[in-house]
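Study this pair:
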Amino acid sequence: MFRVLKVGVLLPAFILLVACSPKLDWRTVQSPQERYSALFPGKPDKLERHIPYQDQELNQTLEAVKVDDDIYSIGTIQVPVNQAAVTEKIVVKLKSNLLDRAKASGGTVIEESTTYQTNNRQRLATTDYFITFNLNERAQQQMRVRWITRQSSNGDAMIYQVSVLHSNANGDSPKILLSQEEYANFFNEFYPE
């Protein structure tokens, strides 16, 4: 009888606990080489590669985690001192590639002024882009992305692309969907040096 009572109390408690446990496993990730810390909703994978730009190779790093229909990612391009003058041109090229692709698909782009915070808690202006990509008549992807450029004391520059890509979009506004807490946490807890 005591065993039945114990199972009768523990089983519903266990089911309730499992039902309440979050699918997102938030963790702070320190990336000293890329000079940032960020809050990811799981353990990200890290990829590194070299990308050609004007007869040189730039180091690019991508840290990303996939949770259900979402990919949370931070891309970093390190621009050496001798190329730092072209940093803004690189950012313009990154933006235009992505935004032009969205427009070519018949999608939309919404811009919103916002701020981000550095490691030393300084608030700086940036822009968030809420993008819809039309893959076909019935399928869409939505994305929230921001680009941040930080100049370091040694003269090189870091270009950050912070983004969430949501598949299986149902036609809701990307601004409304990707401003929800689970996405806002990712953007608000990104701290470059």
Q: What stands out?
A: The longest strand covers residues 56-67. The mean pLDDT is 86. The helical segments are 2-20, 87-104, 174-177, 181-188.
